[in-house]
Each structure stands twice: as C-alpha cells, then as structure tokens.
Amino acid sequence: MSKRAMQETTFLILTALAQGPQHGYGIIQDVGRISGERVVMRAGTLYGALDRLDADGLIAVDREEIVDGRLRRYYRLTEEGSARLAEEAMRLQSAAATALRRLGAVRPGLAGGAA
Amino acid sequence: MSAAGGLPADGLPARGLPVPGTPHAELERRYRRLLRLYPREFRVRRTDEMIGVLMASAAAGQRRPARGDVRDIVRCSLRERAGGPRGGWSFALAAFALAAPLFLVLTDILQVAFPYAESQAAVQRGLGILRAHGVPRHRGVPVVPGVPVVRGVPVVRGVPVVRGVPAAVTGPSALMPQHVGGLQFLGQHAFLVLVAGHLVVAAAVLAGWRRTALAALVAASAADYTQWAAFHVFQPGAGTVMFLTLGVFLLEAIALAVADPRAAHRREGWRHLVPALALATAAQLLAISFDASRVGDIIVWHGPELHATSGNGLLAVAGALALLAVLLPLPLALGWRASLLLAAACYPLVILAAAASGPAFGELPETLGLGRMPFQEAHLVILTILYLPPLLVLARAVTQTLRPRRPGRRDLAA
Fold it and tell me: What ipTM does the predicted assembly reach?
C-alpha cells in the first residue's frame, strides 16, 4: 500500500467494521454516528468503496443472509484492513496531537484535556 | 457480531418486500430503474443488496428516489463505467485481444464492399506530370499516376518509381482510372493471403488457441509489411490501412501473450465489437481521404466526384469516427484502459493524418531530416517514431498484468 493518507470515506467504513461484521445499511448508520452526523454516506458511494476495499484486500464478505426476502451481505475487516486502519488512526492521532499542542501553546483554552 | 450502537439486532427497520401497488413498491421500481445506469457486471453483484439499503433508508410513504441518492447513483455509476470492470489491465488486454482480429476482418470486408476510383481528370493530370518528368511508356502501356494504395496490390512490385512524381503504376488498361478495393481484390493473391491470415487469427482467438493465433498473426503482419516495403519510397497514402493494422497486430500479439480473450468474452459478450466496427469504418474512410488528397479527385462508390482538394471532409468524418471508437469503451463499461489501448493503436494513423493535412504529406522522411539516410534505416526510424508510444503503453499494461496479485483480488478468469 502507498503511504498516502486514507480517504475519509475509507477511514469511516473501516472504523465502522472495526467493531465487528456489518451489512451495508448498518455501515451507513454507523458512519453517520462516527462522524457526528456530519457525513451522510449513500448507497452508491458505499458500494463503490466496498468494491475497492475488497479488491485491495482490506475487507472481505463475512456471510450472507436472506431477511424478509432481501439479500443482506455482511462485511468484515481483514488483517491487512485492521493494520491499515490502525496505522491511519495513529497517524491522525499524532497529527491531531501536534496541532492541539501547538494551538495550546498560543491559546491555552483550545487545547482542553487533549493536550 | 451485532451491529454497532443502538441499532436493532440487525440494524434494519422491520420492513419486508413491498406489497405491489403501494408507494413502497413504486419506490423500489424507480430505484431499480435508476440502478440500470450501472454496468451489467456491477448490477449482477450489487442490485439486490443496494435496493435493500435504499429501501431501508426510505421514509414511510416515499414514492420517489431521494434527490441525494439520485445524484449519488448517477455520479458513482458513471465512475464505475469509466473505471471499467474489475480486472484492470488484464481485462483491457483480453477485451482488445478479442476485438482486434474482428477489426482486421472488418477492414478486409469494408475494402471489398466500398471500392473507389480516380476520376478521369486525375488520370489526365497525372499523365501530364509524368510526361513533364519524361517518364517513358512501357511497351505501349502508359504509366498511370495515382496509387492503388491499399494493401494487397501486387502490381506495385518491381515497378520503377521516379522520385518527385507520384508513384507510378502500370495497369492493364492504363488510361482507365485506377480502381481500388471492390470485388477485384478477391482475385489478388496477396489480399487473399492477408484475409486468410485474419480469419485464422479471429477463429483461433474465439476457439481459445492463443498460440495458433499468435503464429497466424506473425505471418499476416509479415505479409502486410512486405506489401508496404515493396513501394520503395515512403508513401503514407500507400499504407493507410496498413499503418493501423500493423499497430493492431503489435498490440494484439502482446495482448494474446498475457491475457485470455475468452475470459473477456464470457464476461462482456460482444460489446467490444462496437468500437472495433467504428474504428474499421474510420480506417476505410481515412484510406479514401488520403488517396483523395494525393490524387486530387476521387470517385467514391462510383457516385458523385469529390472536389480537387477533397479528402478533408472525409478526413474530418474519419477522425471523428476514430475518436468515437476510442471513447466508446467508457459508456460501454469496458473501462479507460481499453480506451487507452485503442488510442495507442490509432497513434500511427494520427501522425500520418497530421502529415496528410500539411504540405509535407508524402515527404515525411525529408520533413524528419531523413532524406539522405539509406532507405532501410529511414524506414526503421519512421517505424520507431510511429510505434514506440504504443509499445510504451503496452509495456505498462503488461507489467501491471504480470505483477503478482494481492491477496483478496479476484482473478479475471474466475
């Protein structure tokens, strides 16, 4: 994988799956919650991203169910997906910590408890 | 394993399949219609799942797709089509390997189906030029200017060609306009050999005999090149179709070596034939327009004569058709890589078309400063200029195709 920053969509989907396997609608709702309802993920974006993540080996199909006559496919993180998510989360954390520390040096009120 | 947070056990509202005639059923029908924007391969895998998600997100009583969903689906389906089916370069090469032989057979058919001829005025004008240069008559058969152009015209061989005048050709009835293409081609051995080669390649590719196809390709391209090299001077017009076919041969040989065309056929049916047909038609129009710009007047299909500077109109139509052929893989969901391969195949022709529209037409070696170079070496330099960029595209495609796959990536042939 390249060392480029992960797209936000990718990061949110992987984070949603970090808790355990989920189906498409579950991922969409979870992404809303994780982002504080800032990101509204829609079906087209979600399934385009799932295809890409599957091809890159970051996620895999966990199982399929038929519920009320509709197909429901559950996805899970692969080991490579977990590793990439952890790597990205640490990168973001380190960048955020740096930003907050520097802001704290100038405007102490902003740093809050995170510094 | 349960869904996150405060979702119900499965995270979906308790809603089953809609009852026909209800707003819900209408909404589902509209969403399904919208999802047709996606390429077939994507729809087969995803429609049911996506409908489940879209319907679960819908409000009670909603009849029409949400505007945000419509925008999202339109945008994502276009991206899906441009990106093409999964499989990347190996798929693009497989689709090319399947379409190219059919393109070659189509060019043969078009040459027979749409013959054309010099006008009598062009014959007279050419004779005047030859007389001014003191070109003698051969045993009472006057030398006729104007070029028989298309591949597979054996009469060109061994005919003395005078530099600085149009290529001279002796014909059986020399004062008659030179006819190009048509049923007469079927009586020419060189053309028949070429057609046989193309048919063998097409049949072998469809049957999955890649080695046989490769062998037939090499034989046919050698025949093609020999025809062109026999002209003794560099004449773009004389090799119009050949410049394209030689490029296609090159790409086809390498595509066959690394990709299985049958895999593309199983997945995509015959969609790749549409760009092949457009490109073959463009090639035939280009051949006619190049000849028209060399000779002056050309009678097309024994219909109305084109004007003295003619060729430009046809050249524009042919160029537009070639551009269409190159772009067609995008809406057909064959992907941008297929477009790039077609563009690489067209590259030599684009260079020649540029030369044809300028004053340097027919004097490419001189324009490139190759005038004093020995003939064979000049040929090599020109071939390098014409075919190096397509080869670079191919090298990229091949290295990407042969790169070891990541775990989880699905194999094209699977």
Answer: 0.85
